[in-house]
Design a protein that fits this description.
44% of the residues lie in helices and 12% in strands. It contains 13 helices and twelve strands. The protein has 397 residues and is of the alpha/beta class. The strands form three sheets. A seven-stranded mixed sheet has the order 1-7-6-5-4-2-3, with helices on both faces. It starts with 13 loop residues before the first helix and ends with a helix. Helix 3 packs parallel to helix 4, helix 5 runs parallel beside helix 6 and helix 9 crosses helix 13. The longest helix is centred in the last third of the chain and has 29 residues. Bound molecules: pyridoxal-5'-phosphate (PLP). Pyridoxal-5'-phosphate binds next to helix 3.
């Protein structure tokens, strides 16, 4: 089956499966004092050291969580609460208009229930943050800002964000910066310490590890108020018995993804470029969304995101699925109603073209056959989807 939804989740690396399988048979709570507990603890700490080294962090920066969603929640809620506790006037949270729902959800909740003022800076038509508008917001009243959160790379259109500029602005005013690096880690060079970011979310299943495990990297001075209270594991920031096999799988996957990153990116981006060319040859009015500069400084090497004028993305997705091709619309579907993507709307698309989009995301198992299957199927699928949308419009009018 041509699987082109690696941004949703990518197949597990054999290295991760082997490492986890070896661990499943071992008993031991990493907090227990006896030999089995100490063995589990050693495995956890070796994994933590490996993850930290691969991400340019210190082992003590790494706090294990249940994945990207928890890390994002802990970052924004925890930082907001800790800042407000120090200074009740720090209630503004600055972010971009293209964040993942794992970040938007807690921000909306903080605004509705906790008195936060959330300010979303816009993006350009490529999906790149408007740094000037963020700077204006900082200049307005820097003392009222609790934290800034801007993602490293966007999950829908793959646009890499000008994070270095955000960090340098924030540092001038002593404002902590969080980044959701869930899509970046494993694909881009990510060095936590060198970046200067204060908190960073990572998820294992996006890079070949298991689902349900991830981390938040926290700089020395960053002490978010915990979401979970209990046994005080993980620097007292995230209580709960550690999932040793998942942690080992996370470390093994990150190690594998880091080892072959350069060679893999060259291969995957060449396949992605062929896919873009092939889709355009079959559907000349298809619009590539995101940054047209395909270099990984601007766009994730795995990402190809199109609008197909006159189509509903959901219909196209199902038509391709019927041909065994798995991809995504990249937008949320709540209560069965297709919502236009907030990312595309923020980039200036109208609702109809935002609803006409599809994301193809490639990864370490992608092959030229996957690309050929999409190129063969896309033309007829678009024709059928356009027809169906036309019939739908007529029926409604
Ligand atoms: C940018 C981004 N942030 C956060 C998440 C959530 O991560 P998880 O699935 O590990 O909760 C995702 C997953 O889709 C993502 O793409």
């Amino acid at each position: 089956m041509p699987y082109l939804d690696h941004a949703a989740t990518t197949p597990m690396r054999p290295e991760a499966i082997a490492a986890m399988s070896a661990q499943f048979g071992d008993v031991g709570n990493a907090s227990s004092l006896h030999a089995a507990g100490r063995r589990a603890r050693r495995v956890v700490e070796e994994s933590r050291e490996s993850i930290a080294a691969l991400l340019g962090a210190r082992p003590s920066d790494v706090v294990f969580t249940a994945g990207g969603t928890e890390s994002d929640n802990l970052a924004v809620k925890g930082l907001y609460w800790s800042q407000v506790a120090k200074d009740p006037s720090r209630r503004r949270l600055l972010t971009s208009s293209i964040e993942h729902h794992a970040l938007l959800g807690p921000l909306i909740w903080l605004a509705q229930d906790e008195g936060a003022e959330v300010v979303q800076a816009g993006v350009d038509r490529r999906g790149r943050l408007d740094v000037d508008s963020l700077a204006e917001q900082i200049d307005l009243d820097s003392g009222s800002i609790a934290a800034i959160s801007v993602m490293w790379a966007n999950n829908e259109v793959g646009t890499v964000q000008p994070l270095a500029q955000v960090i340098s602005l924030a540092q001038r005013h002593g404002i902590p910066v969080h980044t959701d690096a869930v899509q970046a880690v494993g694909q881009l060079e990510v060095d936590f310490s060198a970046s200067g970011v204060d908190a960073m979310s990572v998820s294992a299943h996006k890079l070949g590890g298991p689902t349900g495990i991830g981390a938040i990297l926290l700089g020395r001075e960053i002490e978010p108020v915990p979401l979970l209270h209990g046994g005080g594991q993980e620097r007292d920031v995230r209580s709960g018995t550690l999932d040793v096999p998942a942690i080992v799988g996370f470390a093994a996957a990150l190690d594998a993804a880091s080892r072959d990153r350069i060679e893999r990116n060259a291969r995957v981006s060449a396949l992605r470029d062929a896919l873009i060319e092939g889709v355009r040859s079959q559907v000349p009015d298809a619009v590539l969304n995101g940054d047209e500069r395909l270099d990984e400084a601007f766009r994730l090497p795995s990402n190809a995101h199109f609008s197909f004028p006159g189509c509903e993305g959901d219909a196209l997705l199902l038509l391709l699925d019927a041909k065994g091709i798995e991809c995504s619309t990249g937008s949320a579907c709540s209560a069965g109603i297709a919502q236009p993507s907030h990312v595309l709307l923020a980039m200036g698309a109208d609702a109809a073209s935002a609803r006409s989009s599809l994301r193809f995301s490639l990864g370490w198992t992608s092959t030229p056959e996957d690309v050929a299957a999409v190129v063969a199927a896309i033309g007829p699928a678009v024709e059928r989807a356009q027809l169906a949308a036309g019939v739908g419009r007529q029926a409604r009018s």
